[in-house]
Specification:
Elements lengths: L1 E13 L3 E9 L2 E7 L4 H6 L5 E5 L2 E3 L4 E4 L2 E5 L23 H15 L9 H7 L4 H9 L7 H6 L3 H25 L12 H8 L7 H14 L6 E6 L5 H14 L3 E5 L3 H15 L6 E4 L5 H13 L4 E4 L13 E7 L6 H10 L8 E6 L5 H7 L4 E5 L10 E6 L3 H13 L3 E5 L7 H18 L5 E4 L5 H12 L5 E4 L12 E6 L7 H8 L10 E6 L5 H12 L3 H12 L7 H4 L16 H14 L4 H8 L4 H4 L2
Parallel strand pairs: 3-6, 8-13, 8-14, 9-11, 9-12, 10-11, 12-13, 15-20, 16-18, 16-19, 17-18, 19-20
Antiparallel strand pairs: 1-2, 1-4, 2-3, 4-7, 5-6
Helix pairs in contact: 4-6, 6-21, 6-22, 8-9, 13-21, 18-19
């Protein structure tokens, strides 16, 4: 509210907090201006009889209505009545730079920028899709008319804001598509179709591949046989069989005479892959080389020699794979598991290990977090995406129940019965606040409580503040059956298979997103027995939390869950700035602006087909110097 009146008095009051109170009157009554932070010169400026024009949020105070820390301007005489041409924008301020300074700078910037602001989206698309002109949108955002929908502006859903968000997302989509086209000019190793080794392995797997696995293997194999380097994401739900698909790709490269590097985010997960590939490739006389940062010096030296000479065809490891002294002989394929856990610079470093003047290696990315199609079409335009959307036959779905934490005693008794039957249990204490320390404390307290309640069980603890070696040792003991109950934080979200673990309890489940809950739930049910997951919540539940937990209870479909999670919470770890280096959005909000995705794709297609000359200027307006990362 804007108020114009005369200063009646100004004085410092001492109560619970020292404050400056100024009384202002107009024809309708008295208003108090309250300042908790003020200077001596500021106090002296409030002279009785002077006029003040102030702006702020009015609230009811102890004796009258008041505004706390209003914006104001003091004059000796009554200011002329004037109707504001626009609403007063409120910008985030910082110490030493107040909102008045920011508004003044923004207005100066608008005067300089608007005359040269070019409309890159052509008129035919403006009329077809009913778009607001870019200049009008920019002015409206910073100088909204008095009758503007303030609720829509606050929520970021005003047509002017949506127009800017739309153009920004179009620019990012076009940039990614452009990078995909640039990659087509690069040369990759041609990996022959019809791998004899894969045919041998497939016939000896001991299980039949699903139709989805066969389809994805065909898509991937065709990519690898092309002259341009592939960049394909293999996404599939937890337990859908992505690793054996990666094995098919690896053997296609090895049979053609190239090396394959598989990188996993943790040593424990990398070792799980190592054992799988050693089991599969052992009968094929294909050596699987292990490389991590914790190897003994002599063992590491021998491993590096094997890799550099080309004797090692399949190399499995962690971040150690892209360290400076690691040299590959002829790296033809890179497989990255849970790729969103690596920074772009790390993936780029590994890709460069196999690059030379003649060719760059193919890349296969595996993700257990399914990407909704709407998101993939817009923000994964540089990737070819294959989905394993079918689970292996005979695998039992995890049964999920939702219970209030007041029933903790019943659950403790159930854990005791399950463990006495020889099975194992996870108890997950999720992140409640953005603090590893608080998370570790919560897990430690739960661990101590369960030890007292279940003294005859072997109970261990793992959390994010433990050293990696200590975490790996605990997880190894759990996997080996030396631990009955594992109390853990979300560090187990992406972890090893423990077929004997068939019960999971997740505390404070209402605080986690759908995709993360589904990932955690995927840690159980890896064996032949029926698995169960208990989602504990602290009542009362809000509407969204009820919807989220009900969907988890009723569905095991990771693709359905990922779509709903995108709608409720935005992309989260699906995207993030580490995904390609391009998604540092200034205006758009991928959770809020989901409805714009189809329009982004349509307009981008029209620009590529009918107005290609506008593409690069549009990209340059929104994106600067990030293209190298999107090639990772």
């Amino acid at each position: 509210m804007v108020v114009v009146g005369q200063i009646e008095s100004a004085e410092i009051r001492f109560g619970r907090r020292r404050s400056l109170l100024a009384l202002v009157s107009d024809r309708t009554g008295i208003l108090t201006l309250r300042f908790f932070h003020f200077s001596q010169s500021q106090q002296k400026a409030f002279k009785n009889g002077h006029w003040i024009r102030c702006y702020g949020e009015v609230r009811r105070g102890p004796n009258s209505f008041e505004i706390v820390h209003p914006e104001y301007r003091i004059t000796e005489s009554e200011p002329e009545e004037s109707v504001e041409k626009s609403l007063t924008p409120v910008y985030p301020a910082t110490e030493g730079v107040g909102p008045n300074i920011i508004r003044r700078l923004v207005n100066q910037a608008l005067k300089l920028a608007l005359p040269g602001l070019v409309e890159f989206i052509p008129p035919d698309l403006h009329s077809r899709f009913q778009l607001m002109p870019i200049q009008e949108a920019l002015i409206t955002v910073h100088q909204p008319p008095p009758d503007a929908d303030t609720e829509a502006l606050t929520a970021g859903r005003h047509p002017s804001q949506q127009r800017l968000a739309l153009e920004e997302m179009i620019a990012h989509h076009l940039a990614l598509y452009q990078l995909k086209q640039q990659r087509s000019s690069q040369v990759g190793p041609v990996l022959r179709l019809g791998s004899p080794s894969w045919k041998t392995l497939e016939s000896n797997l001991g299980f039949d591949l699903t139709g989805a696995q066969r389809r994805v293997i065909q898509e991937m194999s065709k990519d690898l046989a092309e002259t341009q380097p592939a960049l394909r994401m293999i996404q599939g739900d937890v337990g859908s069989g992505k690793t054996v698909v990666a094995a098919a790709a690896a053997l296609q490269a090895i049979d053609t005479g190239y090396q394959v590097a598989l990188m996993a985010p943790t040593e424990l997960l990398a070792e799980q892959h190592r054992k799988s590939f050693e089991h599969w490739f052992g009968a094929l006389d294909v050596e699987v080389q292990w490389l991590t940062g914790k190897m003994a010096a002599a063992t590491r030296r021998h491993a590096l020699e094997n890799i550099a000479s080309g004797r090692a065809k399949m190399i499995v490891g962690t971040h150690a794979l892209f360290q400076e002294h690691v040299e590959f002989c002829n790296l033809g394929l890179i497989i990255v598991d849970e790729q969103h856990r690596f920074g772009v610079d790390q993936r780029l470093a590994l890709r460069n290990k196999g690059s030379n003047q003649e060719q760059v290696p193919h890349q296969l990315i595996m993700s257990a977090t399914p990407i909704p199609r709407s998101l993939a079409m817009v923000f994964y335009a540089d990737l070819d995406v294959s989905s394993i959307d079918e689970m292996p036959p005979g695998r039992k779905q995890v049964t999920t129940v939702v219970l209030p934490d007041t029933r903790r005693g019943e659950i403790t008794e159930r854990i005791h019965n399950v463990c006495r039957q020889g099975q194992q249990v996870y108890w997950v204490c999720p992140l409640i606040e953005e603090s590893d320390k608080l998370q570790a404390q919560a897990a430690t307290e739960t661990w101590q409580t369960l030890q007292q309640a279940l003294p005859d069980l072997r109970i261990e603890l793992v959390h994010g503040r433990m050293k990696p070696a200590a975490k790996d040792q605990v997880m190894q003991r759990f996997r080996d059956g030396q631990c009955d109950l594992l109390v853990a934080t979300t560090v187990i979200e992406v972890g090893v298979d423990v077929p004997n673990a068939n019960l999971m309890i997740i505390e404070n489940a209402e605080r986690l997103g759908l995709a993360q809950l589904h990932q955690l739930r995927g840690r159980v049910g890896r064996g032949a027995d029926q698995a169960n997951c208990v989602l504990l919540y602290k009542p009362p539940l809000g509407r969204l939390a009820k919807e989220r937990l009900a969907l988890l209870r009723d569905s095991n479909d990771g693709f359905e869950i990922a779509q709903k999670d995108l709608e409720q919470r935005g992309p989260g770890e699906m995207l993030g700035t580490r995904q390609t280096g391009l998604q540092q959005l200034r205006i758009a909000d991928l959770g809020r602006d989901i409805a714009l995705f189809p329009l982004v794709e349509k307009i981008a297609l029209q620009l590529r087909e009918s107005h290609p000359q506008t593409i690069q200027p549009l990209i340059d307006r929104w994106i600067h110097n990030n293209d190298i990362y999107a090639n990772v």
